[in-house]
């Protein structure tokens, strides 16, 4: 092992209705819609990215909203829970905000931390935790002040078909450090301030089923394009089968499925979401890669309109 990822780059999940997806993540959770584009492998479907003001690596959750998607089942071979991190003292604010939208949340603890667990409109399992590390988001929307706003991803909980092999990949391939066990979970740490604490459920789990309300893949960070190319070689030498390097316009990507069934991606930090539009206007219009631009009219015709909007009228 010659490389170490510093943490999560992003997490990508399935949804159904694109507007409902925007309403939940931008409207309720107050994240910034930093990019509206399409699934580069299926351009009739949106690919929506939500994060902090810049969509910094470690802050982003993304979605493929397929209106006709089947309902998924959370289980082995998936990210089971996606973790958001907020500033110290912000958890009561989020408990009240979620309640005001009729979203049921449960308090739980793990590794001496308090979590607020809940699901989005499709059943995707989420949680919020307070931590000191990581810069506050500068994005404020609809009553979510910056001192309470979600900073980004705190980490994730992985559900594996073979937890021992997943944990081996995290230590021996990705270079994470195991820092402890707490009842049902083992915890791994990376060097980043966000997206840096990954919990693995120790018990093997029954295979889940992909679909709305489940995670498609988790992406780990490569610091630059040169390191990204090295990661492809490292993954192959470790006995996995990485894809070719794919140009995702905002990062380069390779994918491989680790032995516990979870789809891993290695994504480069550069060039970032200001690659094709000014930082002040991120997410305001549909952005397409150059190879899709000749078909913009046909692509736009198939995509339902979406907007970021305040949801005050929907509160209880």
TrEMBL record:
Pfam families attached to this UniProt entry: Glyoxalase
Highest taxon of source: Bacteria
CDD domains the record matches: PcpA_C_like (cd08347)
Membrane spanning residue stretches: none
PROSITE patterns: VOC
Keyword Oxidoreductase in annotation: yes
Keywords: Dioxygenase, Oxidoreductase
Keyword hit for Ubl conjugation: no
SUPFAM superfamilies named in the record: Glyoxalase/Bleomycin resistance protein/Dihydroxybiphenyl dioxygenase
A GO molecular-function descriptor: dioxygenase activity
Boundaries of every VOC domain copy: 7-131, 152-269
Record's protein name: Ring-cleaving dioxygenase
Organism, scientific name: Brevibacillus fluminis
